[in-house]
Amino acid sequence: MRNLVCIECPIGCSLTAEKSGEQWEVKGNRCTKGVDFAINEITDPRRSICSTVRTTFKTVPRLSVRTQGEVPLNTIFEVMEQINSVKLDHPVHIGEVIIENVSNTGINVIATSDLYYLLEEDQR
Amino acid sequence: MGKSLKALEKKVRKKISPDVSLREWRDSIVLEGMVGTWEQLYNAGKICANQGYKGVVNKLKVYDLDIPPAKKPLLTDNFLQDKKVDVLIIGAGIIGCAIARELCKWQLSILLVDKEDDVAMHASSRNDGMIHSGIEPKIGSKKALYNVKGNEMYTRIGQELDVKIIRCGSSVLFDRKLLSLAKPVLDIRAQKMGVKGVTVLSKEEVLRKEPHIGVPVAGALHLASVGITSPYKMTVAYAENAVQNGAEVSLNTIVLAMQKEHDRITSVVTNRGTVYPKLVINAAGVFADIIADMAGDQFFTIHPRKGHILFLDKKKGELINGVIGKPSLSLAKGNTKGGGVVKTVDGNVLVGPDAYEQPFREDFSTDMENIAAIMEKHLPLVKGFSPSDVIAYCAGIRASTYEEDFIVERSDYVPNLVYAAGIQSPGFASAPAIAEEIEQITCKALGEVMEVKPNIHWNPIRKGIPDISHMDFAARSQIIKENPHYGEIVCRCEGISKGEIIDALNSPLPVYSADAIKRRVRAGMGRCQGGFCLPTVMTIIHEETGIPMTAITKKGNNSNIVVAETKQSPKSGGEMNEQI
Amino acid sequence: MNRYDVVVLGGGPAGLSAAWAASLNGMNTLIIERENRLGGILKQCIHDGFGLVKFKEKLTGPEYAQRYIDLVKQNNIPVLMNTFVIKVEREQDDFVITVVNSSQGVAQIRAKALILATGCRERTAKQVFINGTRPAGIYTAGTAQHFVNLEGYLPGKKCVILGSGDIGLIMARRLTLEGAQVLGVYEAKKTPSGLSRNIAQCLNDFDIPLHLATTITRVFGDDRVEAVETARVDEHMIPIEGTEEIITCDSVILSVGLIPENEIAEMLDIEMDHVTKGPVVDQNFMTSVAGVFSCGNALHVNDLVDYVSESGEIAGEKAAQYVRETSEREFVDISMVGQDFLYVVPQHIDIKADNKTVILYFRSREVRENMRVTIKSGENVLFSKRYIKLKPPEMERVRLNLKGDLSSGVIDLIMEPVKGKEMAP
């Protein structure tokens, strides 16, 4: 039996999920989104990861990045390791791929800040 | 010899504890033995004070109380090894720095040492910066003498050292009309002590001066000569002027021992090597008695009296014009003026202090009970002050002797040791006068062993860092034209520019910690307490000095602000990572 | 002297959208920004969750900000960067803004309308009366976030966090991801302040304990934080004697609230709401001083940047309207009935203005379930909605139609329990 708080909307229903055979029975939800949420959280929890990568630019030593989608919860630190090994040496725009298929999750890591813009502002 | 030793011993044994014994040593009275509480230790000392002995040497110990020794700096090297100097000044608070500066008038090699990472780290940066009038101390005391003199001298000193002083005056309120009849008594006292500008104000007059007073008031004693300034900026200014005139300052330097020959100090051992001074000046604040003991000359004892002060947001500064205090029956739990509210030279409001005896000489931690008591006692003085206006608070320790007066003299037994010790309130107000007195004593003592010639290159003028945020717009534009860094505002609460921070890092006595910058230019002292500007201040320190960000400290030693760069080893995950 | 129709103080999300809206409405607009880049606090909010309402996407702070930065650039709206406002005053019909920067020294700018988008600052350790020593290692969450996300430095390796607001929760996760150990999050209230999503994804995911009704009372450590003392607190948030615990750590991260920055509003003697700590405004976000508008976190602390942008857009649009035609205002107060509401923004409605609909934001004072919120003028019901749950940390947005009879002179905002059986939504 698992207890979860649904995060699909601000109400935050307290859910319980119990395994019955191959199925999970979810209770406490006020809408169907809660059932999907609970089942996903239990069977295949995923998260988006937002972090930064190192750069070679003195005025912008870190650039923000994120996974372009959600990766399995249990790969968080592996993905972080990959992200931390990057040292970006060229400007990028938002959305450019920094790491392709990070940790074999099928998800890319993309830039979320515009390094062209940030460097340009420093030139002024 | 005054009151019979035996009688005192009997009294102490009766009132405090039978485990105490008294003896005479030179001209002082010594207490030895064990007591149960610090209060007992202090009270025993008090009983023996001013009973005809020169000083109280309180060697009592408290059961189960471990008092740590002076905190040592981490630094150890031979930088000062075998150094010969004419004068070694121990302690770089306002007193030590002022003495160094005055001694620069003479052709003397001067070394000023302090165990902290900056000047003014103890009481000199933890007081209200008030230049008292001098009317409060006991008539005939050294406090009275030097306070009145120092008060007058500060006008010139402020100008020479380029430190802002405001003669705002102080209103000591009373709520009973009868007290205004004290006027003739006050006049006599003021005249006797040489204090000018003492008047008694009627209720209307007080309210005109301070329209927002929030307590019932029948009148006030007004002391026009009272001024306010920044005590740490003044200390830094004195130190910088001394350095400009050739004095040397060695921070992170602690005195560990002294050697004597024929009663004279011949060498002083520090963590940076052994120094050979012709004369030593003891301005060591809360540790002055420890230093005296190193010279075999401890004739007094420091009992640390702690006090808290609070700072209110500048916004409330407009509700007060000067200093307001209201003495109460619980006024002096140990010689404090009772405290009040002070409009500081920067426009903040300072509240407090309180005062209480406790055993620790460097315990600057704050306690909520004390903060709450100060707020309850003093905030009501002005309508509109509230606990939500508090932006900061801190504690300081007063270097009080049992005699509760300054020690400004040459040692009776060690001919090349001079004391500027036991300097508690009104110590800051008295500093310029104490410094000049010590200068005279020192020159006379040195004159016995060398020729003391005037320094013809002596320059009393020191230019401080420009106060950009208070300049008029034309002057401000001009200075920015000359140096664009003055136009880049870093600390938004106080309006401090990058240029001022760079100036601090290039000052005659540069110190590279974040707190040192704060003391010199106030960046980080505003309502957000450095929340916005700290990273930028650190970046400027790094760019100007090359010090890596991870090595920049808050206040020296191991107070690094950030602990590591992120992503140093790629593997930086939670529990898995043991490396970072 | 430079003259503009509308000058916006602040280049964060509120200021950017305000400037864009003003410009779109034909105004000659200027943004004044004290930092060296646009985006405000979003620059360091590298986590996602921004823009769900506005763009139906889950963006990070910098991505969200860039959308508006691009709009400002595309519309060629001038920006004075690295420029600090030192004074603002009224001069006849204009506002004179005195600024300082490296290239111009002290300069003055004239504006017909002013939009204050100055954001907020963080409450400090001293403001929550944390006592003890003052070592290195005590940082507000925003400062810690700046160190980690912009400069790449860890403020500590073993952290305790005080405050369960979103910023504290976000930093709990961020510090953990970057290799620090977060020992726990302490919250003086009985319920957490942040969004449930953040409790789940920032704390539960990493097994970081959340200690409710517990606060940090004392810090230990000489040069660096060595430990803190925690204590449980009662309903009045007073520490309970005997419940103290010592936790060894090397840093304390504080997430104890945001305070709108309104030094400039105070220079203009604008009427302030002491609960929101922002100006009192009407439905067009105009303050008590005609021609001065307030939006974003400077007006009141928001939860969603989407609403910050919305307030900026309205302020910008209405500032433009004001410049074109100033008119007399007539206010009807929005009266919060009882003690159920913490605050409502706007605080009053200008019934002479031409809005047909009005956006209102309110916060419930406490956690409530199954409540009906009604807004009415006399007997004229303007709005009525049932809320399954209302929480102080979750600001509610209401779209109000100003219809019918408003002559009663007051608008009541009422919260009452829903009568009858619970119905399926």
Q: Would you kindly provide a written description of the structure presented here, covering whatever features stand out?
A:
- In chain A, 24% of the residues lie in helices and 32% in strands.
- The model of chain A has no long low-confidence stretch (mean pLDDT 91).
- In chain A, the strands form 3 sheets. A 5-stranded mixed beta sheet of chain A has the order 8-5-6-10-9.
- Chain A folds into 2 domains: 42 residues, no CATH class; 74 residues, Roll (CPE0013-like fold).
- Chain A contains 3 helices and 10 strands, in the order E-E-E-H-E-E-E-E-H-E-E-E-H.
- With 124 residues, chain A is of the alpha+beta class.
- The termini of chain B are far apart.
- Among the domains of chain B are: 58 residues, Histidine-containing Protein, Chain: A, CATH 3.30.1340.30; 142 residues, FAD/NAD(P)-binding domain, CATH 3.50.50; 96 residues, 2-Layer Sandwich (D-Amino Acid Oxidase, Chain A, domain 2), CATH 3.30.9; 80 residues, BFD-like [2Fe-2S]-binding domain (Arc Repressor Mutant, subunit A), CATH 1.10.10.1100.
- In chain B, a hairpin with a 4-residue loop joins strand 25 and strand 26.
- In chain B, the strands form 5 sheets. In chain B, strands 9, 10, 11, 17, 18, 19, 20, 21 and 22 form a 9-stranded mixed beta sheet that branches. In chain B, strands 5, 6, 13, 14, 15, 16, 23 and 24 form an 8-stranded mixed beta sheet that branches. In chain B, strands 1, 2, 3 and 4 form a 4-stranded mixed beta sheet that branches.
- Chain C has 425 residues and is an alpha/beta fold.
- Chain C has 3 domains: 192 residues, FAD/NAD(P)-binding domain (3-Layer(bba) Sandwich); 132 residues, FAD/NAD(P)-binding domain, CATH 3.50.50.60; 97 residues, Immunoglobulin-like (Sandwich).
- In chain C, 19% of the residues lie in helices and 37% in strands.
- Chain C has 7 helices and 31 strands.
- In chain C, a hairpin with a 2-residue loop joins strand 28 and strand 29.
- The radius of gyration of chain C is 23 Å and the shape is globular.
- The N and C termini of chain C lie far apart (59 Å).
- The model of chain C has no long low-confidence stretch (mean pLDDT 94).
- Strand 27 of chain B pairs antiparallel with strand 12 of chain C, so a sheet runs across the interface.
